[in-house]
Design brief:
Elements (H helix, E strand, L loop, with lengths): L2 H4 L2 E3 L2 E3 L3 E3 L14 H13 L3 E8 L19 H12 L4 E7 L18 E2 L3 E3 L4 E5 L2 H20 L4 E5 L5 H6 L14 H18 L5 E7 L10 H13 L5 E5 L6 H4 L14 H10 L3 E5 L5 H9 L5 E3 L1 H6 L3
Helix pairs in contact: 2-3, 4-6
Length: about 325
C-alpha cells in the first residue's frame, strides 16, 4: 500500500528512505533564539514515526531578520550546539534534516523582548498590509551583508551535521520581495530589470554553494502563486523558476501557495479544511513540467491516498504531510 510514498528518493547524493517530509513550520519551541530540548524532542517524534526528511522552521539568517521572539537565531555561532543535537537525534532514526533559512523583509510580525518594534527592511519603502508595517529601503551595503549572512548561516548548519539548507522565498518574504516589481522599485543593480531583481536570490545561492561542501543540499521554498491581488503571480513565479533551473541553481524547489503580506494570501500559509485536499498538486505539476529540478510540495496533503496519487501521477517527487504528522507523529 502507498508504494510511491514509501519509495526512497535521492537528492544530491543523499538518499531519503521515503517521500514523506515535514515542512518548515513554527513550533514556538525555540527559546531565547536557540534550539531547546523540547524542540529536538518534537522533531525526533516525527523521525521516529517514519518521516524521510524534516525541514526545520524558519531561522534568522541575519541579525536584521527579526520576525518574532520564537524564531531561532541561526546567524549566531551559539546556535550550532542545538542544531547539532537535533541532527544527531534525527539521523539516529535514518531521517534527513534540512534547516530553513529566513529573512522576513517587510513581514515583521512581532515585538522584541524589550517591547520595541524592530525595523522592517525591504528592497524599497513598502507598506505591509497585514502587519501594518512600513519597511525601510535596504542600502547596498546591507543587501551584501544579508547575502553573506545567508552563506555564513548555511556554513553553521552544515558544520552542525545537517544535510542541507532551504532558502525561504515563499509567502512574500525578502528574497521574493526583490523579485516582485510591485515591491522592488530600486534603480540600482538589485532592481529594475528581471535579471537585476533576481540578482539577490542568485547571489544568495551562489555564495552558499561556494562556502559549503559539494554534498550539502541547497533547496528553495517558493509560492507558486501568492493568490492575492497585488501578489506575485503564477506566470511571474514560473519565469523565476525557469531562470533558476536553466542556471542550475538549487537542488530542489519546494512548492507552496500564498503570501504573508495580506489576509487574502495568508489563508494559504495554513490552508483551512474548506480548501480541497492536495490543492497545491496542479501548481507543483506545472513547475515539474517546466523545470528539471526535484519538486517537493506542501498544501493540504493530509491523507496518504492523496499524497501517493500525486506521486504516482508524476506531479511531485516528495510530499509535505506536516499537519498529518502533527496529529499523529507515529
Amino acid at each position: 500500500m502507498f508504494e510511491h510514498l514509501a519509495s526512497p528518493i535521492t537528492i544530491r547524493g543523499r538518499t531519503f528512505r521515503n517521500r514523506i517530509f515535514s515542512s518548515g513550520h513554527q513550533t514556538l519551541l525555540a527559546r531565547g533564539g536557540f534550539i531547546s530540548d523540547r524542540f529536538v524532542a518534537y522533531h525526533e517524534a516525527r523521525a521516529r514515526g517514519g518521516a524521510g526528511l524534516i525541514i526545520t522552521e524558519a531561522a534568522s539568517a541575519h541579525e536584521s531578520a527579526y520576525f518574532n521572539e520564537y524564531v531561532p537565531c541561526a546567524y549566531l555561532d551559539e546556535s550550532i550546539v542545538g542544531y547539532r543535537q537535533l541532527a544527531e537525534a534525527l539521523h539516529s532514526h535514518d531521517c534527513g534534516v534540512i534547516a530553513q533559512l529566513f529573512h522576513p523583509g517587510a513581514e515583521v510580525g512581532g515585538i522584541a523582548e524589550d517591547g520595541s518594534c524592530p525595523p522592517a527592511w525591504a528592497p524599497s519603502t513598502h507598506h505591509q498590509e497585514r502587519y501594518l508595517v512600513t519597511a525601510r529601503p535596504m542600502p547596498i551595503s546591507m543587501i551584501r551583508d544579508v547575502i553573506q549572512g545567508f552563506a555564513d548561516t548555511a556554513v553553521r548548519m552544515i558544520s552542525a551535521g545537517l544535510d542541507g539548507v532551504e532558502i525561504l522565498a515563499s509567502h512574500g518574504y525578502l528574497p521574493i520581495q526583490f523579485c516582485n516589481p510591485r515591491v522592488n522599485h530600486r534603480t540600482d543593480e538589485y532592481g529594475g530589470t528581471f535579471e537585476n531583481r533576481l540578482r539577490f536570490l542568485n547571489e544568495i545561492h551562489d555564495r552558499i554553494r561556494s562556502k559549503v561542501d559539494d554534498a550539502a543540499i541547497v533547496g528553495l521554498r517558493i509560492s507558486a502563486d501568492d493568490l492575492q491581488t497585488s501578489g506575485f503571480s503564477q506566470d511571474e513565479v514560473s519565469e523565476v523558476l525557469t531562470a533558476l533551473d536553466a542556471a542550475g541553481r538549487f537542488d530542489y524547489f519546494n512548492i507552496t501557495l500564498g503570501s504573508s503580506s495580506t489576509t487574502e494570501g495568508a489563508v494559504h500559509i495554513v490552508p483551512p479544511m474548506s480548501i480541497d485536499p492536495a490543492y497545491v498538486a496542479p501548481y507543483a505539476a506545472e513547475v515539474k513540467r517546466s523545470t528539471s529540478r526535484i519538486i517537493l510540495a506542501t498544501g493540504r496533503f493530509n491523507r496518504p491516498q492523496d499524497a501517493d496519487r500525486a506521486l504516482a501521477a508524476g506531479q511531485v517527487d516528495m510530499v509535505g504531510m506536516t499537519r498529518a504528522q502533527i496529529c499523529d507523529p507515529q
